[in-house]
Design brief:
heterodimer, A: mainly alpha, two-stranded antiparallel sheet, 15 helices, B: alpha+beta, 2 domains, five-stranded mixed beta sheet, 35% helix, binds protoporphyrin IX containing FE, binds copper (II) ion
Chain lengths: 576, 265
């Protein structure tokens, strides 16, 4: 092999690779990096809220810019990207026994376009006026009128351009994930034999394909309002006493477009996380997931109803108040399939043999934080109860726990769980457990008190609370406690990164199936799996994904590619 | 580790309940007729509180009881339709319990009484201003295109109903025990008019008029704040709300400027 060839193969193997596993790692590393930026931004906000006025470089303008970038980074560029682009890419082909994605080139393109969107997003920090401070919801007219919000020049335009680029990437990725699941399953891998991770990513990706176009349309219209002076979302307005040459638009139209995307987006994140959590919980309690079929139906139900609840974010927006009845009912109905999932995770643990390793701890953390985060959605969905709570700290507590912390529990657990497969090495358990306990307990300390602040009526998105006359004196102390907890939780993420990097290089060599798991990715002939994943033949599947502790079987797990023989019963006969 | 884990879970539940029970951060004392809102919210919080405690304690029990032990093997229990049905039933029941009073209260919230006193609230970066209907009980027409430094509310002075309208640029005064219907507007971006002691809020959206109603039930000084991000002054956009006897209210109102006296085209 000449030097030149070698050079080429480095580029095509590790940089412009079409191997889904390399692309998955690229997505994950990029998302974690930008997530770290989002984390540092949250520190800055907490420093201001805990110690108002102490940090001179924080003023209302920069606070709202930091807030906006933090929110958008966390939801779109971290969670969505890592769950679909990272986990989706790594797991789908391996778990369904495929050699790669249906469209490997498109897959590679999707990553590079995502990277571009991240670069455009970050560029906003360096342009005149800085990033937009209109809030991650980008409501016009605030986000559309010159000088109404910080970053109304370059900042908002870069944000919208970045989102449009991200949507292009998510569409390429989404089409790939959906097509791969539908077309590339190996022999015997029926839909109802797929692991729940694949189901969650599959349904989540399908939802993304249906939801992102609404954001795309809203984003392009908002960009035109910004760039060309159109008035899609702008009625006749004055700004600081001056009449503006705009009229005829409707700000609520944007809110409908935004939340028609925004609510399903929550499930784009949560469904893959649910799937991953199911894998963690079943594998490490050595038991089949309880009610597999109910789990799949619940996810499908959540996906369908999830498109009919968007206006619960708009109960006090000024939309026709009679819509409130419909959206309250649809929102609370969606609680039922979500509750079914919680019950089934708990019942998976019931009579199990729970292994207390790091992935399982995160699985347990997922259940607990999803419970508190999910339950606190009920008051917000019960329209009249939302009237006092809307846009208060109650909402901040709710979405951080359900979508931020819970999703991250699944993501962290998933990273630890598949780390041995991805790198061929084990991570450090002690550091992993430290990471878990600090993050889990810290998250409660940060976000639980926010529910009480919200009940008291503290509005969110406040640079400080000095103007509020109804706060108990202890509130300043509480905010200090929250800030300190946030700093410590942040530091624990450094432990996580150090563990990942160190273990990827120096960790103990991993067996190919260290958790004794049943799903196909653990049955690859070599670890880490090479480009193409399988040896000469792709595996054949004979059973569902959860044959753990089958009575009469010799070992407490039977991989999906083991045929049913008299000595190795197909434990699934009853259910699938 | 399993013992530690379940102890931590129990401590989290205990800690959460203790923080709630401390009562330091809880509802502000209600000063309007909306005890139905508090009622619906409290029922909802009660239901989810019970679920939060039960599910987390059950989780703590499970991880303690079913931690890996040498001799034991996990049981192969792929599902149990009967348990699932019971749990779905309980969940549906819980949801009906919190939703029914909620929807009932909501239907009252969106049906203002006919005799309510109308007050207009106008938001702008970053203050709240108010307009009262004056003796004729009717607010004059207004249009954003008419807004100018001399006509900050954009009232149409050609409209006879506008002449006697009364303007307040700083405070909202209300008579106690009389229903009030707010007409909420914004001149620029979206704001949200929120009076925590009254439990009610509604966005102020340019280009449209939004509404809510309430009855102040207690004399005193309260605070209206902005609950929708509206730019760098958002956290400083607030205004006193003064609830007083009818006589005092009328005395105050008589001292405020009218449209006829102050607004020029
Ligand atoms: C330790 C971790 C985190 C801390 C300490 C933190 C802290 C904060 C703070 C202080 C705010 C501003 C609240 C306000 O002024 O209204 C905020 C807003 C927000 N955060 Fe986080 N956050 C964290 C992680 C996350 C994660 C993982 C997500 C992903 C869902 C997330 C999503 C958001 C969103 C969407 C907003 C709202 C932005 C807006 O109002 O426009 N955060 N966070
Ligand atoms: Cu939603
Ligand atoms: Cu505001």
């Amino acid at each position: 092999m000449s030097h030149h060839d070698h050079h080429q193969s480095f580029w095509t193997r590790y940089i412009f690779s079409q191997d889904h596993k390399v692309i998955a790692i690229q997505y994950t590393v990029t998302a974690l990096f930008i997530g770290l930026v989002g984390l540092v931004l949250s520190w800055l906000m907490r420093l201001q809220l805990g110690f108002p006025g102490e940090f001179r470089f924080l003023n209302p303008g920069s606070y709202y810019q930091i807030l906006t970038q933090h929110g958008m980074i966390m939801i779109v560029y971290l969670l969505t990207a890592i769950l679909l682009g990272g986990f989706g890419n790594y797991l789908i082909p391996l778990m369904i026994g495929a050699r790669d994605m249906a469209f490997p080139f498109l897959n590679m393109l999707s990553y590079w376009v995502y990277l571009l969107s991240v670069i455009v997003l970050v560029a906003a920090f360096f342009v005149p006026g800085g990033p937009t401070g209109a809030g991650w919801t980008l409501y016009p007219p605030l986000s559309a009128l010159p000088n109404a919000a910080p970053g109304s020049g370059w900042g908002i335009k870069l944000m919208l351009v970045s989102l449009v680029i991200f949507i292009a990437s998510a569409t390429m990725g989404g089409l790939n994930y959906v097509t791969t699941v539908l077309q590339c399953r190996t022999k015997g891998m029926t839909l109802m034999r797929m692991p729940l991770s694949v189901w969650g990513i599959f349904i989540g990706a399908a939802m993304a394909l249906l939801a992102f176009p609404a954001l795309f349309v809203g984003g392009v219209m908002l960009l035109l309002d910004n760039l060309l002076g159109t008035s899609f979302f702008i009625p006749a307005v004055t700004l600081f006493g001056q009449q503006l040459p705009r009229e005829g638009g409707n700000p609520l139209l944007f809110q409908h477009l935004f939340w028609y995307f925004g609510h399903p987006e929550v499930y784009v994140v949560i469904l893959p996380a649910m799937g991953i959590a199911s894998e963690l919980i079943a594998t490490h309690s050595r038991k089949p997931i309880f009610g597999y079929k109910a789990m799949v139906i619940a996810m499908a139900a959540i996906a369908v109803i999830g498109f009919l609840v968007w206006a619960h974010h708009m109960f006090v927006s000024g939309m026709n108040p009679y819509f409130g009845f419909f959206f309250a009912v649809s929102t609370l109905i969606i609680a039922i399939p979500s509750a079914v999932k919680v019950y089934n995770w708990l019942l998976t643990l019931w009579r199990g043999k729970i292994q207390f390793n790091t992935p399982m701890l995160f699985g347990i953390g997922w259940i607990s934080t999803f419970i508190i985060g999910g339950l606190t959605g009920l008051p917000l969905g019960n329209v009249i109860a939302d009237v006092p709570l809307h846009d208060t700290y109650f909402v901040v507590g709710h979405f951080h726990l359900v979508m931020g912390v819970a999703a991250l529990m699944a993501i962290f657990g998933g990273i630890y769980h598949w780390f041995p497969k991805v790198t061929g090495r084990m991570f450090n358990e002690t550091l992993g457990k430290l990471h878990f306990w600090v993050t889990f307990v810290g998250a409660y300390m940060i976000f639980f008190p926010m529910f009480l602040l919200g009940i008291l009526g503290v509005p969110r998105r406040y640079f400080d609370f000095e103007a509020l006359q109804y706060l108990p004196t202890q509130t300043a102390g509480l905010n200090i406690v929250i800030t300190i907890a946030a700093l410590i939780v942040g530091a624990a993420q450094v432990v996580f990164l150090v563990n990942l990097i160190w273990s990827a290089v120096r960790g103990r060599r991993a067996e190919s199936n260290p958790w004794h798991a049943t799903t196909l990715e653990w049955q690859t002939p070599t670890t880490p799996p090479p480009h193409g994943n399988w040896g000469a033949e792709t595996p054949t599947v004979y059973r569902w994904a959860y044959d753990y502790s089958v009575p009469g079987a010799e070992r407490d797990f039977i991989p999906q590619n083991v045929p049913a023989t008299p000595t190795v019963p197909a434990g699934t006969a009853r259910t699938v | 580790m399993p013992v530690f884990a379940s102890v931590v879970l129990v401590l989290i539940v205990v800690g959460a309940l203790a923080l709630v029970a401390s009562g330091i951060w809880w509802f502000t004392p209600l000063a309007s007729n909306w005890n139905e809102i508090d009622g619906a919210l409290l029922i909802t919080l009660g239901v989810i509180g019970i679920a939060f405690v039960t599910l987390n304690l059950f989780l703590a029990y499970l991880i303690l009881r079913y931690r890996a032990r040498e001799q034991e093997r996990a049981q192969f229990i792929p599902d149990n339709p009967k348990i699932e049905k019971i749990l779905i039933g309980i969940t549906a029941l819980g949801i009906i319990i919190l939703l029914a009073p909620g929807l009932f209260a909501y239907s009252r919230f969106i049906s203002p009484p006919r005799d309510a006193m109308i007050v207009e609230v106008v938001g702008e970066q970053w203050r709240w201003t108010y307009r009262y209907a004056g003796p004729d009980g009717k607010l004059g027409r207004a249009h954003p295109k008419l807004i100018s430094p001399k006509n900050p509310f954009g009232v149409d002075i050609a409209d006879p109903a506008a002449q006697d309208d009364i303007l307040s640029y700083t405070e909202l005064h209300l008579p106690v025990n009389r229903p009030v219907l707010l007409h909420i507007r914004s001149k620029d971006v979206i704001h949200s008019f929120f009076i925590p002691h009254f439990r009610a809020k509604m966005d102020a959206v340019p280009g449209m008029v939004t509404h809510y109603w309430f009855v102040p039930t207690r004399a005193g000084k309260f605070q209206a704040v902005c609950a929708e991000l509206c730019g760098i002054g958002h956290h400083r956009m607030h205004s006193p709300v003064i609830v007083e006897s009818l006589e005092k209210f009328q005395e105050w109102l008589a001292k405020q400027p009218t449209v006829a006296a102050t607004v020029k085209p």
